[in-house]
Amino acid sequence: MRPANQVFANLGTTIFTVMSSLASEHGAINLGQGFPDDEGPDDVRAVAAKALIDGPNQYPPMPGMPALRQAVAATNKRFYGLDVDWQKQVLVTSGATEALNDCLLALLNPGDEAIILEPAYDSYKPIIEAAGAKVVSVSLEPPLWSLQLEKLAAAFTSKTKLILLNTPMNPTGKVFTRAELDAIAALVIKHDAYAVCDEVYEHLVFSGHKHIPLMTLPGMTERCVRIGSAGKTFSLTGWKIGYVTGPEHLMAPIMKVHQFVTFTTPPATQTAIAFGLAKDDSYFDGLASSLEAKRDLMAKGLEAAGFDVLPTDGTYFISADFRPLGFNGTDEEFCRDITIKAKVAAIPLSAFYANPSTAPRHLARFCFCKQDAIIAEASARLLAYAGRK
């Protein structure tokens, strides 16, 4: 038989599926996959329900419902001072992963190089490779996840087409600083490259940190596309609504990819997200403060069990060093061990590296966007596992 596409045929089962299955098998609390355990804002869901009954329920416009595209443009102006033409510079997608796919397939040609910063979300590498481009990885340095600018500069070559920047960053919780963003922007401009900016956690930022879109920096408006996620902003991950903002000359090919991937996204949920994006500042501030409290609760529980907890300034995730517990195996072995024995599932951080053999093997990622009672119970189980209870 002739082989299938080698990029996807050679992919194994994702670690998220593996750990979730193991968690289910052993009745473990699943702190592996990144989704909240509530159902999102009541008013946003009510708008979706009404729109589903009232209609329309046929194909909406391919780039997205005008109301949502207008709302995305308005939030760009409201939060970041960006002037966006909603008709030419905004695209609605069926989730941020589709948005990533559309952007990367539209911008990359075979033989191009794309830089990713590791640890990185696991969809980046296969999409880039499926486009025929080469992944060039630059690793951040734990525990502060510092960006070594010399390494980054060395990664840029005459073949570099783009850098994929995720801030706030999954899985590290890092929020890139203005100084780091300035350095990245300078390299992008110097090498006549683009930036695909995965900013799905843009409103989930803690501890006085501030999310700064790379697109807002001098010279970057025409070189950046930025991706947002209604699932993350409204705790409605199952709705799968993402949006892309960028200059017209980049959005045109991105929209052409989109029309042959999903073409469009359900209109009722688009209507509801347009309503949600117009909420006042108290909603967005409350979302961040609520998750910051959950981060602190999870950190306190991990520290009590003996972990060294790494800083996290955004997202749903917190990483911890398990070596102080006396466990001498790999991160994958540790995550399997606590799933079976402590009945708490986490994700080994090495899963977020293109080459796990070069990754740190002593860190586990825990998801804290759960009910406080769930976090407390998971903490108690880990305390007992560590023999401190």
Feature tags:
4-stranded antiparallel β-sheet, 2 domains, 389 residues, Aspartate Aminotransferase, domain 2, 14 helices, alpha/beta, 41% helix, Aspartate Aminotransferase, domain 1, single chain
In words, what does this structure look like?
It is a single chain. The protein is an alpha/beta fold and 389 residues long. The protein folds into two domains: 6-39 and 282-385, Aspartate Aminotransferase, domain 1, CATH 3.90.1150.10; 42-280, Aspartate Aminotransferase, domain 2, CATH 3.40.640. Helix content is 41%, strand content 14%. The protein is built from 14 helices and 13 strands. It has a seven-stranded mixed beta sheet with strand order 2-8-7-6-5-3-4, sandwiched between helices. Strands 9-10-13-12 form a four-stranded antiparallel beta sheet. Strand 3 (113-118), helix 6 (124-130) and strand 4 form a beta-alpha-beta unit. Helix 5 crosses helix 10 (248-259). The radius of gyration is 21 Å and the shape is globular.
CATH architecture of the largest domain: 3-Layer(aba) Sandwich
Q: Roughly what is the average pLDDT, rounded to an integer?
A: 96
Strand order of the largest sheet: 2-8-7-6-5-3-4
User: What form results from the Cα inertia axes?
Assistant: globular
Number of helices: 14
CA gyration radius, whole angstroms = 21 Å
Q: What letter string, H or E per element, gives the SSE order?
A: HHEHHEHEHEHEHEEHEHHHEEHEEEH
* Biggest beta-sheet profile: 7 strands, mixed
**Strand runs, count:** 13
CATH topology of the largest domain: Aspartate Aminotransferase, domain 2
Level-1 CATH class name of the largest domain? Alpha Beta
Strand fraction equals 5-15%
* Low-pLDDT runs: none
- Number of domains as seen in the coordinates: 2
The CATH superfamily of the largest domain is known as: Type I PLP-dependent aspartate aminotransferase-like (Major domain)
Determine the structural class based on helices, strands and strand pairing: alpha/beta
- Helix percentage: 40-55%
Instruction: Tell me the distance between the termini.
Output: 57 Å
